[in-house]
Design brief:
The complex is a heterodimer of chains A (211) and B (335).
Chain A lengths: L15 H11 L3 H7 L19 E6 L2 E6 L6 H8 L18 E4 L2 E4 L12 E3 L13 H9 L8 H14 L5 H7 L10 H18 L1
Helix pairs in contact in A: 4-7, 5-7
Chain B lengths: L11 E3 L4 H11 L3 E4 L5 H6 L7 E4 L9 E4 L2 E5 L4 H6 L1 H6 L1 H8 L4 H6 L2 H6 L5 H4 L40 H7 L3 E6 L2 E6 L22 E8 L6 E7 L10 E10 L2 E10 L6 E2 L1 H7 L6 H14 L11 H14 L4
Parallel strand pairs in B: 1-3, 2-3
Antiparallel strand pairs in B: 4-5, 5-8, 6-7, 6-8, 9-10, 10-11, 11-12
Classes of the chains: A alpha+beta (211), B alpha+beta (335).
Chain lengths: 211, 335
């Protein structure tokens, strides 16, 4: 017994998150995609039909052009999380009933679980990963959340933050009531709404100062 | 509850850029086809795998279906105009605030951003027995699960039932009926125009459809005549929570005054029947009278008797609710 294989020495330990991200990045999941999304067989000659779609599409996500193979029935949230590795966008209900998957499509807040990826070709998609500045500085809204300690478990935070960004784009100086209206499409199961509204107003304040 | 599976089963997807191409595709697929506008209603059906269309025709790229066009005769709203755009349109806000108010009460900001006016009008009912995939009359079966003595039917109808006791969930429908809107429908044989209240289907006529649209027809536009522009309006939506919720009941009224007297009026309620109900008897009753609280009360009673409203086991509250909403819509109108 000369050589014992050592697994998981401190230097080699890989966190679950890093492992999943690595798998997505290397494309090792492409083989399983066929099992996840079975059932879409393109008709023979379908391309000749007016308005039929191609599987290989280019998406503009966070300012980058990303080539991705999408199925007809695939929603944007699935593509972002499972094909592009942008796991900041969360799945809560997958039914347009919680807001955890909120992203911006051409600057407009939308539930990524309820949009076909094929419908957003040519549009600018912004996810939580696309908010920070080139130098790694936080977006004013993120800074506001950070300073106010806005969330408890924060599973809903990416969705809320995207809604806040959309809100201050339209209304840079919202009242608490207006902020509550603008964020009414996001749920927080920790019921941290008070602090979330504080964060939203703080974020709006930082954004105004920056503008 | 339906078993949540979340993976949508496969379908052919088409994204035509013209209405005629969409209609051609829909004619080709017939009952196997599905029209996708905002998708907020469709994806629930798809994810639960209760509806499995062979082909989905996404209207998102059809430019001629989008936008608000104003003219001296009134306004024409493309069916694919988003609810947000309707709710915030300056001309609509100024002249037809009843519609913008109704639109701004729909669901949540994100849903209003994606959802369309045409979709809001054409969406399927929310009866949970039906939405959970139970084989009821509306789903092609031969029983109604919501109308039995042991059913949970707090949100169901009090009038207009015919085997099915579900209600129409649209918030904009009563507002558009009160505005005397007309809906433009295009099919393989060309275009036709129907009055707003005639767009919605009674289960007594066809229990499996919510609207008069056939499988190969599209709602292309909503026309609002200038007739009621600037009249006194009232819109109210009763719901259990302030966001996301479908209406328990909603009321919309457009009232023109001549001095202290009601000169002309149009009234509609939704959430009481499988289709939005225009209260023509009440309209003619209040004409030529002063909009006092007594008149409102009498009109509310008349609304109940003229629709022959009868409660199911759990929705008796809807009777006084309907009476009071009609009452408020007459004396509470905003000029």
């Amino acid at each position: 017994m000369s050589e014992v294989e050592i697994i998981g020495t401190p230097e080699r330990t890989v966190s679950r998150r890093k492992f999943i991200m690595g798998v997505i990045a290397t494309g090792a999941t492409t083989s399983s995609v066929g099992y996840l999304f079975r059932g879409s067989q393109p008709l023979l000659g379908a391309m000749a039909v007016q308005g039929s779609v191609e599987r290989l599409v280019t998406l503009n996500v966070n300012g980058q052009q990303r080539r991705v193979d999408v199925l007809n029935q695939e929603t944007l949230a699935m593509t972002l999380r499972y094909k592009l590795g942008l796991t900041g966008t969360k799945f809560g209900c997958d039914r347009a009933e919680c807001g955890a998957c909120t992203v911006l499509i051409d600057g407009v807040a939308s539930y990524a679980c309820s949009v076909l990826t094929q419908s957003v070709r040519g549009k600018q998609i912004t996810t939580i990963e696309g908010l920070e500045g080139a130098d790694g500085s936080l977006h004013p809204v993120q800074q506001g959340v950070f300073d106010e300690g806005g969330f408890q478990c924060a599973f809903c935070a990416p969705g809320f933050i995207m809604s806040m960004v959309a809100m201050i784009e339209e209304n840079p100086n919202p009242t608490r009531q207006e902020a509550a209206q603008a964020l009414s499409g996001n749920l927080c199961r920790c019921c941290d709404y008070d602090k979330i509204l504080n964060s939203a107003l703080r974020g709006a304040e930082y954004a105004r100062r920056q503008a | 509850m339906a078993i949540i599976r979340d993976m949508i089963s496969g379908f052919e997807l088409f994204q035509p850029t013209a209405v005629d191409d969409a209609i051609e595709l829909l004619s080709r697929y017939g009952d196997e086809g599905w029209v996708l506008s905002g998708g907020l209603d469709s994806f629930d059906w798809f994810k639960d795998r209760i509806k499995k269309p062979a082909a989905v025709v996404d209207l998102g790229n059809v430019k001629e279906l989008k936008g608000v066009r104003t003219s001296t005769d009134g306004v024409e709203i493309g069916a694919m105009t988003t609810v947000t755009e309707v709710a915030k349109h300056p001309h609509l806000l100024e002249n037809y605030s009843i519609l913008t108010k109704a639109a701004s009460h729909i669901a949540t900001p994100q849903i209003r951003n994606r959802g369309t006016l045409g979709g809001n009008l054409s969406q399927d009912t929310r009866c949970w027995y039906y939405r959970s995939g139970w084989p009821c009359y509306r789903a092609g079966g031969n029983v109604c699960y919501a109308g039995t003595p042991t059913s949970m039917n707090r949100e169901h109808c009090i009038t207009g039932a015919s085997r099915c006791v579900a209600v129409n969930p649209s918030d904009t429908a009563p507002a558009l009926i009160a505005l005397g809107a007309q809906f433009v429908i295009r099919g393989p044989k060309g275009e036709k125009v129907v009055e707003a209240q005639d767009y919605f289907m009674s289960p007594a006529v066809d229990i499996q459809r919510m609207t008069v649209l056939k499988a190969d027809e599209l709602l292309t536009a909503i026309r609002i005549p200038a007739t009621w522009s600037g009249a006194g309006f009232y819109y109210e939506k009763m719901e259990d929570r302030k966001a996301w919720d479908f209406a328990l009941m909603s009321v919309a009224s457009a009232i023109k005054m001549s001095g202290e007297i009601i000169e002309d009026a149009r009234l509609a309620v939704n959430g009481v029947a499988p289709f939005p109900v225009r209260l023509e008897v009440v309209e003619s009753f209040i004409k030529g009278k002063e909009p006092t609280d007594e008149l409102g009360m009498a009109a509310g009673q008349l609304a109940l008797s003229t629709t022959n409203a009868q409660p199911l086991r759990h929705n008796a509250f809807k009777l006084p609710l309907m009476r009071n909403l009609v009452r408020r819509s007459i004396r509470g109108m905003e000029g």
